[in-house]
Amino acid sequence: MKDNTSIYSDILKSIKTTDDQEQLLSEIDILLDALFQTRLGFEKSLESISLETTKVLKETFLKINLDVTNIDEVVNFLNELKNKIKSLKTLKLYLAFFPSEDSIDKLFNWIINNLGNRIILSIQEEKTILGGAIIEFDGNYLDYSLKKRLEDLFFKRKEAIFKI
Amino acid sequence: MSIEPIVFFDLVISIFILSLALVGLVFYYGKTIHKIHSYRREEEHLKLQMHKKADEIIEEARQKGNNILSQAHSNYDKEESAFRESLRASYANQIKDFEKVSQDFLKTYQNELDLIKIQTIQVLKNISKDIEKHTLLEINDFKDILKKETFASQKIVEQKIEKDYEEAKKGVDAYKAEKLKIIDNDIYKILQTVSMLVLGRTLSQQDHENLIIDALNLAKKEGAL
Q1: B chain contacts of residue A94, beta-carbon cutoff 8 Å
Q2: Residue boundaries of the structural domains of chain A
Q3: pTM of the full predicted structure?
């Protein structure tokens, strides 16, 4: 089994938001419990998690030629995967609407293309900002909301607006 | 045993002398007792005499007292009737005198009263005239003063009204400016809110996504990401 980040990249790319992160961590824990408690084997234990996660894991194992009959190896992989998932950075976005799956995909693609695959999204709806986004990342707070832009605009051009 | 004759005679003489002394003593005692009895009899006799005399004196005194009392009583009745008669006469005389004095006094009083009344009326007439004259003078003075004061008051009031008006005008101007400022701010806020609402509602899904991507690009450009 190869031990570098690239072997987890496909799985990590499937995690777009903090909700996905929690979901996957939860499923890995369930899978680990199933492997330890039942000792029924990997294939049988996969029935306790979602089909989507099962598919991603199987594809990865096939890609890296992991021996799924070796439970210890599988467990080591899963524990390492958990650590990688937990180490992902979060970019928090306050948006005027809660985005659809398509919108999340677009935003996540922008992140993959511009910031790499080690960052996931945390999205919170804040209607009062009207549009745009407030971004929280690495301790920075950046207000690029439409509300802020309008406030700045009205403040800078107050006199001109009054003349109208 | 035989007694000497001399001694015997001495004894006989002694007994004889003692017998004589005893006889003398008895005789003296009897005489004294008799004298005491006679004194007692005399004492009783004197007591009887004294009682008798005292009774006589008391009786005489009582008799005299009765006489005096009866005489005094008789005199008292006479004196009393005389006194009453005298008192009645004196009373009648006094009433007559008082009536006469009262009549005289009443007459004098009436005369004096009439005189005072006439004088008082005269004085009052004089006083009324004086008061009227004095009052007219006072009224005239008051009128003059009132005219002067009225003119002065009018001037003061005019000045005060003018001053108050200026102060009120300043207050109104300040209030007006403050209200205009508040209205300006409110208009600004209303305009801002309306703009925001209109913009917020007119943005499409694509516009929103573009704005978010723009925000991310800007953050990256500024080095925040």
Answers
A1: none
A2: 5-86, 89-163
A3: 0.48
